[in-house]
Amino acid sequence: MANQVITGIKETAQSITGAARPWGDFLDLSAFSFPSSIADATTRVTQNLTHFRINYSIILSILLGLTLITRPIAILAFIAVGLAWFFLYFAREEPLTIFGFTIDDGIVAVLLIGLSIGSLVTTGVWLRALTTVGFGVLVLILHAALRGTDDLVSDDLESPYGPMLSTSGGGNDGARGDYSGI
Asked: Model pTM?
């Protein structure tokens, strides 16, 4: 049982870090410049948040972990909460069933968010964690606004607009669609 848990955690960590973009691209100093307008900054933020979302998540997680390191009880609580998230949400392949009732993933997520917030409040680190996450988000948005997007390779599948940008539609004329007269 313990080996399965450790193996599952290792596989999840490897898949998360494998999905991260190369840190050299993320920190490429030659790609940084001031945006020419607010619209350019907004576009950069949107594209960089989409492209580097795993990198940003890793940074925020590390910052939050460093914040909690000063409170051992908070570390233990968040290990327990992290394991709950892992087993009840991320590692499941089939719906959660308790006493014969199937519980929707949305309900599980809301309960786990409540557990996370409850752990923050009961361990007394909620203000410190909130400040850290706020500061981290501010720094990450600043990074996203200053990092140029010219060198980013973007697939249609990676775009938040997905297939709407595809010009290779099934016999239709791309974005114009397949219209018929009334």
From this structure: 0.62
